[in-house]
Amino acid sequence: MVAAHQTRNPQAEAQWALVERVLASQQFRRTVRLRDFLRFVADRSIHHPGTPVPEHEVGTAVFHRAANYDTGADNIVRVSAGDLRRRLEQYFLEEGAGEALVCEMPRGGYTLVFHPREADAVQAAETVPTVVASVAPPGNGPAFVADELREPVPSDALRHTFADRLAPVEGAPARSWFRDVRTLVLVTICLCLAALTGAMLLRHGREPWQQTAPLLAIWGDFLAPGSGTEVVLADSSYAVIRSLTHKAVSLQDYLNYRYRDAANDPTLDPSTRAAIATMLARNSGSIGDFEAARSILALTRQPAQVVMGSAHDFTPSVVKSNNVVLVGASASNPWVTLYRGQRTLAIEQDPVDNVAVVRNLQPGPGEQAEYRVATSSSDVSGYAVISILHNIDPGKRVMILEGTDSQATLAASNFVCSEAGAAQIESALHGRENAQQIDVLLRSSKLLATTLGASMVTVHAR
User: Fold this and answer.
1) pLDDT digits (tens, 9 = 90+) for 258-288
2) Cα 135 from Cα 392, distance rounded (Å)
3) Domain ends where: 116, 133, 155?
């Protein structure tokens, strides 16, 4: 017997064709999880209309959560649904503006609704009748019709009028030189003010990253119109599991979710396995990383061209072939390991002490081969590294913002997103402005987990 959803149904076919176009759009092309989410709810909505889709089912089928996961403690489905709704709306406003059929996922559920696009409203100006106004002057004077004011004045009449106004009146004294100079000064002041206003308006109309030359030099490749940039945030759950097991995980094992096997590792004690299972049931992130991402978004008035998500939401094809900003060190963002061979400064996890350490692979004069964070309670500093490199696709760029802790990562983001920080990097590159790849080492200071600032230690350029 053929399943009901396999029989020919022109309406279902049209709906599914629309979903396929949405899936291939710019809004969904780069985010694997949201494509899977949309494909799942579309299949259920088109082939099983009227059947509600439970949040728990989405979590297990799309986001690979355990069968007994708690939707109250893990809000991955609800958060992703909000992003899905925004991207759908954006698609039908931009790429899909010509679609006759529209779909949306109403709040409160996980079912798609399809409906024809409403006809565009007729322009109000086309329906307003032309009104001819009569205006009566004070007293008993005759009224005049507004249309009379719109009659063209003959060019000869204009010439005579202006000539009459400019010609000196017979018998009138000549203008004094004082009046001529005063007029010239006033005109000059007006021109200067106009030029200043124009410059201010031009600056105001620019994107924030275009306001100064240093910011433009650093962020031009990432935020220029049409460039498109992926901001990949660290995966805190992965970092905690690494810390609990004291085992490094390769990028391949991360992509295959092999690190999740630690929850059933018989060599670990039951309490550790229970803690790992709890972490796997949550989609965790660092406040410092979120603040770092906000600093990047503040540089542009077009946030739609910046795609943001957690490390586990991306695929190698997306990360390697686009402009990318990686937030977090390799201990929490395994994508950073892709670029290990291009860097001279990088933060790695010491396998013995299990602390973050800056490795300097090419120490210059006066530089250390290794920078460690002091363990004393009185020292509240950290280290951060900013790397700007070629991506795997040579036409694309990658920026890595990593710190010895999340506050140091935030310090790196604040530094490179500020005019002052960008200017310091430009100054340090004096004579090496054509360098294609740079690594910047910062020392950050903080108090009570609040980042106070960062100072530059060294810059490597090549």
Assistant:
1) 777 777 888 888 888 888 787 776 666 777 7
2) 73
3) 116
